[in-house]
Amino acid sequence: MKSEELSFEQAMERLEKITARLEEGDVPLEEALEEYKRGMELSALCHTKLKKAESDLAKIVTKEGEEPFQLDGEE
After folding, report:
1. What family is this protein classified in (predicted)?
2. pLDDT, tens digit, 9 for 90 and up, residues 15-74
């Protein structure tokens, strides 16, 4: 399954498995690099999905006539 097809939850689960495996320290260097690269791709995917969810939520809140949704640190 391509990373674009993964749900947020599936991507997080895979990322957690990669993290646990790398933290064990028994992974050969070349394999560790590939796992790290895959983990970074999954992390970026999760970040993108979270940003989209935040944007969608902001649109919903605004449509309902409530105050626009603001993220922490935004003014």
Report:
1. Belongs to the XseB family.
2. 999 999 999 989 999 999 999 999 999 999 999 999 999 988 888 877 666 665 566 665
Provide the 3-class DSSP secondary structure of residue 65: coil
Whether 32 is in a domain gets the answer yes
> In Å, how far are 11, 20, 66 from 2, measured between CA atoms?
10, 21, 38
Task: Report the candidate in 47, 42, 35 with the shortest Cα–Cα distance to residue 5.
Answer: 42
CA distance 58 to 66: 10
Distance CA 57, CA 39 (A): 27
Residues of the domain holding 59? 3-63
DSSP class of 72: T
Q: What is the CATH number of the domain that holds 43?
A: 1.10.287
The type of residue at 57 is: L
